[in-house]
Amino acid sequence: MDEPMRAVGIALLALAAVWPARPRVLRLVGAAAGGAALLAATWQASFEARSNDWAVPATVVLAMGAAWFLPQLDARRGWRLGWRWALLIGGAAAVYGCVPETDQMPEVGVVVAAGLVVELVRRTPLPAAALVGAWGLVAWSALYGATGRPSALVGGLFALAAPIAAGAAARKGWWCSVCVGGAWAVAGLVVARTGGIATELTPAVVAAVAAAAAAGVVSAACWRRLGSPPAVS
């Protein structure tokens, strides 16, 4: 485990989350660099001398999506507090459910649970940089914990999608965002405990495709029925 590179990856993702939206390319480049650093931190554990190169672009794309969409999640005060961190907890649970190496998961669980508790106790949303940095830690735990098993990589990477999907739906309103995020979180747990624990890659891919299709159908329904166009100022 390369702890300095892990720290660099998390820091770059947190920075990308608060980088000015324009020019967009700089924000995305920073997030991509953060994803690359997480890959470097786990290269020996899950990629070296293994045929898992497909997970490299997938990780980078997810990192860019996290830095772009997670800051868009509605975090206003009130009873909506904490739900962003609940999505991360669901993702961490899915990772725990499919990766063979789990010694790192208590640390991850403490961080994401602390984010939820602090937000509820302070009654104030934590900064987007903290949320995206915590997402980066969960992503690292998935890459490291897979220990090179392709099916676990599929399950772990799929588990990271729920907060991103929720952020992508945020412009349609909070209820739509929650519905979409919940659908992908449930899908992540299903993939983790089916294809994610398989001994071969094919069942994991089949499970991921089926779960993504189901979550996509639910998301489309939420988008149509619960989504409201953003207010025009």
Features:
single chain; 233 residues; mainly alpha; 11 helices
What does this structure look like?
By secondary structure, the protein is mainly α. 72% of the residues lie in helices and 0% in strands. The radius of gyration is 17 Å and the shape is globular. The model has no long low-confidence stretch (mean pLDDT 92).
Topology:
Blueprint: H1 3-18, H2 24-41, H3 43-46, H4 55-69, H5 83-98, H6 105-122, H7 128-145, H8 150-159, H9 161-168, H10 174-193, H11 201-225
Helix pairs in contact: 1-2, 1-4, 1-7, 2-4, 2-7, 4-7, 4-9, 5-6, 5-7, 5-8, 5-10, 6-7, 7-8, 8-10, 8-11, 9-10, 10-11
Total number of distinct structural domains: 1
Secondary-structure element order, N to C: HHHHHHHHHHH
Query: Could you tell me the mean pLDDT?
Result: 92
Number of helices: 11
Helix content class? over 70%
- Largest sheet: number of strands, sense, barrel closure: none
CA distance, first residue to last residue: 49 Å
What is this entry, summarized?
The protein is an all-alpha fold and 233 residues long. Helix content is 72%, strand content 0%.
